[in-house]
Design goal:
Elements: H1 3-13, H2 27-34, H3 42-49, H4 51-64, E1 68-69, H5 72-84, H6 89-103, E2 107-108, H7 110-125, E3 141-146, H8 153-166, E4 171-176, H9 181-194, E5 197-199, H10 207-220, E6 225-230, H11 238-254, E7 261-267, H12 273-285, E8 289-293, H13 303-311, E9 315-319, E10 327-329, H14 332-340
Parallel strand pairs: 3-6, 3-7, 4-5, 4-6, 7-8, 8-9
Antiparallel strand pairs: 1-2, 9-10
Helix pairs in contact: 3-14, 4-5, 4-7, 5-6, 6-7, 7-14, 8-9, 10-11, 12-13
């Protein structure tokens, strides 16, 4: 990784200490790293990833505001546009209120509106842009990763493992998504790529028992970070949600303070459905932080703003692609600038 990338990862994961030397990447891992665009920086990739959301907003704003007076009708059109972009009713109302204050019945252009949009989005996101701190008093630091199937949980775990290993930490992966052979195999591949140890069982085995064994082994082996993959929990499937709660109870038999972080991985393309996922997983699993993936190519990136305004859960990272470098620290200012197209 470049020095710039490693610096960014340090901010993201808030490392406090280093363990054994970083793992040597395998050919497969090196290929993955090489997929990152060579000439496009992180902000450039983020701007490209939010391009559809930004274009939808910019085109709509340009169509509404062409240096004419700010009136009730134009404000109503703008509010509808912002809601359609999944920014949320509350955020849309605040942006409209900010424009109305001091600008009502005066000439206003699209750039003025985009400036207010950027400021309001950044105001909402700044309080939740927080690093994920590991390497303190907990050893292992247990991170439970939850979310609906297809959001990118297992891939996100692999990227986290690679980044923690680059910091010299001893990492273990627990393949507790025992319903899907593909998920178990995928986690095994990430273990080989990153030099992280993997605890896995047969398809259909008891997930809670596997996690218990993994934590016991992690303590014996002085592992720094234990990343636990879980099955895709459909929030309307009570049995699956109960099993997730069981995993948490079992972890606490060995370490009452664990899990130390519960990361919910969200797929940006799901739009408003992501809000209900946050509500259910927060209630049943005690979500402590968010990672949003698949911001590349979606026109629904504004949902992160709506989620932050309503739930104020820390956002640790966002992903705009498949390579390891495409999972980066969440920066409120950069996100606001990209989404506003300014």
């Amino acid at each position: 990784m470049s020095g710039k990338t490693q610096g960014a990862l340090g901010r993201l994961w808030g490392s406090k200490s280093a363990g054994e030397p970083a793992a040597t990447e395998t050919d497969s891992a090196t290929d993955t790293l090489a997929q990152a665009p060579a000439k496009t920086g992180w902000f450039g990739r983020l701007k490209q990833g939010l391009g559809k959301t930004s274009a939808k907003l910019s085109d709509g704003i340009a169509g509404i505001f062409t240096k004419k007076k700010l009136e009730a009708a134009t404000l109503e059109e703008l509010e509808d546009l912002l809601i359609e972009a999944d920014l949320g009713v509350g955020v849309a109302e605040n942006i409209v209120a900010a424009l109305r204050k001091g600008r009502y019945d005066k000439d206003i252009g699209a750039e003025d509106v985009r400036s207010v949009l950027k400021s309001e989005v950044e105001r909402v996101l700044a309080p939740v842009a927080k690093p994920l701190v590991v390497g303190g008093t907990h050893k292992p630091h247990v991170i439970l990763v939850v979310g609906v199937n297809g959001t990118g949980k297992t891939t996100t775990i692999g990227k986290l493992a690679a980044q923690f290993r680059a910091q010299g930490k001893k990492v273990m992966l627990a393949a507790a998504d025992t319903f899907r052979a593909a998920a178990i195999d995928q986690l095994g591949i990430w273990g080989e790529r990153t030099g992280a140890s993997v605890v896995a069982g047969a398809v259909g085995s008891d997930a809670a028992g596997l996690v218990y064994d993994a934590l016991a082994r992690a303590r014996e082996e002085s592992i720094d970070v234990l990343l636990v993959d879980t099955a895709g929990r459909l929030q309307n499937k009570e049995g699956l949600m109960e099993e997730l709660a069981k995993i948490v109870r079992v972890i606490r038999k060995l370490d009452p303070s664990a899990p130390h972080d519960v990361l919910l991985v969200l797929d940006a393309t799901t739009g408003q459905n992501a809000l209900s996922q946050v509500e259910v997983f927060r209630e049943r699993a005690g979500v402590t932080g968010l990672v949003m993936t698949k911001l590349d190519g979606t026109a629904r990136g504004g949902i992160l703003v709506a989620i932050s305004a309503k739930h104020a859960i820390p956002v640790h990272a966002i992903g705009v692609g498949e390579s390891i470098d495409d999972l980066q620290p969440f920066d409120a200012g950069e996100f606001a600038q990209a989404i506003a197209g300014s």
